[in-house]
C-alpha cells in the first residue's frame, strides 16, 4: 500500500504536464483531488493499522486468558472503529458504485383446504394480513431487488425492494446507517425490519422454511417492519453482548399507520452469545415491542359462527425470547452442521374494541393475553443437502370483551403445525426446496400443505447474520 500511493501520486502529477492546454483552474482542481485522495488513503491506512493492532491484542489475550474464545476476540475487533470509506474524487471512485443483487424465487403450492378460507382460530388478525400458505398452483414468490453502497466516510445506504407475485411493488427496507461512530455504536434511520427476536430481522430468502412460524403470523403480522430510527451498541467485552433501541412510526401490525407527531412504536432488544469450544456456538436474546393502534380493523368469528369485522384502539406489548445453538466440526460448516433454534412470543393488548363495525358497532373494553412458540432443527448431512423439522403451537390465552362478551368468544383451541423440509443447495447462490406441513390452525380442520420452491441469487449480496 505504501508503494502504491507514491506511484499513484506520480502518475496523477504527470498528467497536467502532458496536457499543456490545461488552464490554471484545471490544475488547481487536479491538485485538490490529489490532496483529497492522499488524505483518504492515509486515513484508511491508519484505521486498518488500528484494527490490526486490536486483532493482534485480542488473539494474544485469547491465548493467555483462560476462557477467552473466538467470539470474544471478534467482539474486541468489532469494537474498533471501522476504516472510513474512501472519499469520492471526480467521477471515478469504484468504491461508490452500488452493489446490486436480485433474489429470484418461484413456488408451487398444493393444499388440501382452500387457502381463501385460511384463519387462525382464537386470533383476530388485520383484514389485510398476509398469512397462510398463499395461492395454490404455480406462482412467482417474492422477488427481492437489493441496492447498497457507501455514501461517504460516515454513512452507507441500503434498500430492498420486494416484487410481489400479484405485480405489486413494495419497499421492504430503505435506510442509511453510520459506519464510523466508534465505541461499538451504530445508528440506522429509515425503513427497516425491527431487530426484535431472531427471525424478524431476516429477509424471506434466508428463512430455513418457506413460511414464517404461526407465532409470527398471529402476533406480528408475519414480520414487523417500520419507519424510524435504531441505535445498537456492541459491548467491548469478551462476552458477545449487543443492546438496541428503536423508535418508529408504528405503521405495521400490531400498530396502525395513523397521523401522529410522536412515536407509535418503541422496541428494546438485548442479545448475547459466544463459543463453546471449537465446534459449538450460541446466541440468546430478549426483546420487547410496544405499538399503538387506532381503529385497527380485525377479522373475527362471533359466537354464532359468522365472520365479523371489529375495530381495536389501544396499545400492544409483544415480548420475544429467542435462542439459537449451532454445531459444526471444528467450526467448519461446509460439510456437515446442525442448527437448533426456538422463539417464544407473548402479546398483551389493552384498549377498546368495537364489535361488528358494519352492523352492531358496539364498543367495550378489551384485553387479550396470547402467546405462541416454535422449535426447529436444521441438519446438513452432506455438502449442499439439508433436512429440517419444525413444530409450533399457539395459545389463545385469556380475553376480556366487556359488554361484547356474549357475542365474542375466542375459545380455548390451540392452533398447531408440524413441518418437514428438505432442500438442496448446489452453491451459496441457488437453492431448491421441498416442504410438507400438516397445519391445524383452524379448529376441526387439518390442512396438508405441499411446497416446491426455488431461490436464485444474482449479483453482489452481503453476508447474512448469525
TrEMBL record:
Signal sequence, start to end: 1-21
Entry annotated with the keyword Signal: yes
Chain coiled-coil ranges: 31-65
UniProt keyword list: Coiled coil, Signal
Protein name in UniProt: Zinc-regulated TonB-dependent outer membrane receptor
InterPro entries: Porin_dom_sf (IPR023614)
